[in-house]
Amino acid sequence: MSSLKMKNDVKYELIAPDGGWGHILNIGGILMVGFTVVPISSFALIFGPYLSTFYDEISATTTVYSVFSTSFYATGLLANFLFLKLSFRKVAVMGALIYCFGSFASIFVFNLQFLVFSYGILQGIGTGLIVPAVIVATNEYFDHRKMVVFAVCQAVVALLSMIYPGFTRLMLDNFGFRGTQAIFAALSLHTILGALTLQPVKWHMKKVLLNKGEHTTGSTSYSSTLNEMESHQLLDSNASEKSFDNKEKHFQSLESLTNCHKATPQENRKGCFLQNLFDLSILKEATYWNIAVGLSLCITSEMNLMALMPIFLSNVGFTDNEITLLMTIYFMSDLITKIIISVITLFWKFKSRYVFLGNIAITVALRIVFTEINLYWWTIVLTAFLGSSRCIIQLSHPMVLAELYPKQFSSAYSLCMVFTGISSIIMGSIMGLVKYKTQSDAMVLHVLTFVCLFCAITWTLELLYKRFVFKNVKK
C-alpha cells in the first residue's frame, strides 16, 4: 500500500511500514486466531462424550460443526460490509466480544440445540469477523514481507494446533468437559487484547522522498486516481481511520462507480450497494464457478475431517492416549510442512492451482486407505501425510484466488466464503443422512473423500479443455 503526499512542492510517498508496529499486530493476530480457530480441533474431544449420552456422537458433532462453518463463512458477507463503515480494529473487537460470549455460554450447555447456538452460531460469527480483520490488517501493514509474515504466523498457529490436543486431554482428565471449556473461554479473552493491537495503518506509514520525475500520472489511470483519493484522505486531519484503511479494497473499479451514477435512483441504491460489497462480474466466468465450488468443497471436507477424526479413531478401537498422540502427529506434520513450504517459496515460484490439484489427488488416495486400514503404525504414517495435505490445502486455498484474480481478490475471496458456507450446510445434511442410513462412520469419511475427488475431476476436465479444445478453437 502506498500513497502520495506533497509538502512545499516536495513529493513524498507513504508506504506500508513492512515492520514496526506490524510485528505487534502479528502477535495480536496470532492471539486471535490461536484462541478461536485452533480450539476447533478439540471440539470433539471436549463435547463428544457428553453429546454421545443423548445423541449419536458423529451426527451431533457434524451438526454443530456444520453450523459453525456456515456461520463463519457466511459472516464474510457481513465483514465485507462492515469494512465499508468501520475500521478493521472495530470489526475485530466486535468479533472478539461475540466469540467470548459464545465461549462462556458453551460452559452451561444442556442440550444439542443450546450448543448449536452458543458454539455453532455465536462462536462461528465471532470467528468470521476476527479472521477477515486479521487478514486485511496484515495485508495493509506489509508489502514486500507479506508472504514471509503469513508463513511465520501460520507456522505459529500450527504449533499451537499441535499442542492443543494434549493440553485438552490434560484439562479433561483434571477438570472434566465443563471445566475444560471454562479454561478455553478464559483463554478466549486474549482475543480482545489482540484486537486492540490492530491500529490504523496510517498511524505507522513510512514517508519516502520521491525524486523528480519518478511519479507519472495519467488521466485515465485508476491507480493514479486512487492514489490521489488516498492522498486527500491523509491530508485531511479529521478523516476517520476507516476511510484510509479500506479505500483501496472497496473502490475496485472506477468504471463501476461511473455506471452507478448512470442508473436510475432506485437502481443506483441497489447497484452501488452490491458493487461496493462485491465485484459480481466474476460470477459471469464459468472458470470462477468451477474454482470456487472446488475450493469450498475441499475446505469443508478438510475442516469436517479434522473435527471427526478423534471420534472415528475412538470408534475403531484407539485409546484416548493413542488418539492424542495421533492428533499431535497430525498437527506436527502440518507445522513441518508449513516451514518447508515457506523455505521453498523463497527460491522457487510455482502455480498454486496445480499444487492444490496434485495435493487433492493424493489426498483422495490417502483418505481411502486411512478409512479402510486401521492398523496402528499404518494409521500413524497416514495421519502424518494427512497433516501435510491439510497444510497444502490451507496455504494454497487463498493463493489460488490471488493468482487468478489479483485485481478482484477481495470479491473473489468473499464470494468463495459464501460458497463455503453453503457447502457446509449441504455437506452437514448429507453426512447426517449417510450416518442415519448406514450407521457407518467409514461411509461418512468416504463422503468427505468423494467431494475432494469431485473437485479433482472437474478441475482436471477444465484444464484439459483449455489445453486442447479451447486452444484449437482459438486458433
TrEMBL record:
Organism: Agrilus planipennis (Emerald ash borer)
Keywords from the named record: Membrane, Transmembrane, Transmembrane helix
InterPro entries in the record: MFS (IPR011701), MFS_trans_sf (IPR036259), Proton-linked_MCT (IPR050327)
Protein name, entry field: Monocarboxylate transporter 9 isoform X1
SUPFAM superfamilies, per the entry: MFS general substrate transporter
GO molecular function: monocarboxylic acid transmembrane transporter activity
Chain segments annotated as transmembrane: 21-51, 63-84, 91-110, 116-136, 148-167, 179-198, 288-313, 325-347, 354-370, 376-393, 413-431, 443-465
Superkingdom of origin organism: Eukaryota
